[in-house]
Amino acid sequence: MGRILLVFRLVVADVRRHPAQAAMLIASITAATATLALGMSLNGATDTLYQQTRAATAGPDVVALTPGSGRTATTAMAALERAPEVTDHSGPYRQYYTTLTAHGLTSRAVAQGADAKPGTIDRPLVTSGTWVRPGGVVLERGFASALGVRVGDRVTLAGRSRPVVGIAVTAAHTVYPWAAMNGPGGGPDDANGLVWVSKTDTRALVAADLPVTSLLYLKLRDPAAAQEFVVSRRPYSDQYPTNFFTWQFMATQDKVILRQSQPVLVIGSWLLGFLSIGGVATLAAGRAAKQTRRVGLLKAVGAAPGLIAAVLFAEYLTLALLADALGLTIARLTEPLVVNPTASLLTSATGPSGDTVLLTIVVALAVAVLTTLGPTVRALRTETVAALADTARLPRRRARLNRVSALLPTPLLLGLRLIARRPGRAVLHACSIAITMVGATALLMFYAQPVHNYGLGSSDLGNVQVELGRHVLLAVTFALAALAAVNIITITWTTALETRPTMAIARTLGATPGQITAGLSTAQLLPSVPGAVIGVPVGIVLSGDVIMPPAWWLFTAVLVSLLVTAALTALPARIAARRSVARTLSASV
Q: Which residue, 563, 562, 511, 513, is CA-closest to 533?
């Protein structure tokens, strides 16, 4: 039998014997790597989506907008068409500032007149339905998503009901809700959705005497020099009030949506990584005694230290790689929803990059190695006879401390002694609670901030940027809480298994199962108090200089964390306390 096959069989056998521990390890590392991959993937993702959409829709290099549709606007557009840097153009088109109502929601909108067959520059990609025709309108996909509109629905545009014949995406306008790019009269831009209408239907818009702007889409000889072209046209634009938008500006503007989400994901991934380290370290420490005996058995049958180390590390490394693959898959499936929340861009070119994949693999393997290195080295250094005997480590006796602690109630006494014997585990648990409270505090701080309303109309369609930030922060906080809950259960159950003989002896001396249960819960609840108290100010500091939420919000979060900790520790502690004393002591002899 080859060594690789032997290691594989030993790893599979150990996973089968401990499926719950393997599942918790995979869940911990998966949460961390998925969040890290998603956070890293957002860097430059919008640029990729914009370039993809621009290529698919023949997006312009420069968009020129001039107020009005009269002789002044016509002269300005004609001068740009004849510019030596321009190789092609489409337009000019007219966009009218009006309102659109759908499903009871009223929003400001810009209605752009469109040809039955789009020009060579800016050919919107219809993702559902058909292109514009007389009597029907096409909505930009981000705008349609915000309104909940589908093909076949009817909308009211400038007071007239029209059917929606199509939904499309374009790179000639910035993403919803910044479709207008230019306010009426050339003033500041207000939030608007974009809708295309046939040129025949624009007569009703003209008759309604709506504000209008002329648009011209330009293709340059050198697209990279779009900004230089705009700068060279500034003197001319002073005479004719023309605003220019380069493709680089629009790509940058599209990224504004992710301004709050990316740091949340990156910071959240590191917090989840710390929790993963804590959870895996607890699992490794809890299995230290069994691993030591396993090492003794392998040594007894002649296994070399290298083979033993390979067996011990292979399981954790294999599970870590599996968890990393799951995390990358989750990030790949989730990224389109995060990176393109407005649905205004095409999303087929998303997914973690090679650098992101490599980084997550390194992080997953580092978590597995760092948390199992100590127990593995100690097991390898243990003599064969001592490893097979698996003798318990005697606690240090401190007479003065024992006299003082003897005066305490039994549950508190047992809890404090468990903490004293495993101070590192108590610190680890406190850090887990603190990290969870950091996320909870940041979430409360975020929700306490006033939301800037787009002011789209009589109905509130929501601030896409804030809503995305809240959803991402809520998801990260939920992942932190779930992982912390797994760690609490793991620590309680591991402690209960390790202290079975001690708790059995305590029961022979008069302790009741209820006191044993309370003692095990106390050992987890006491470190939770400083962890929760420390996590709140750290979360406030990380949130920056923002409006503080009501104090009772933060107090409630601390209280809930303590109550949840007590509830999560009660069940495993109760199960452990119900074990027969005779069975426990006989197994320890």
A: 562
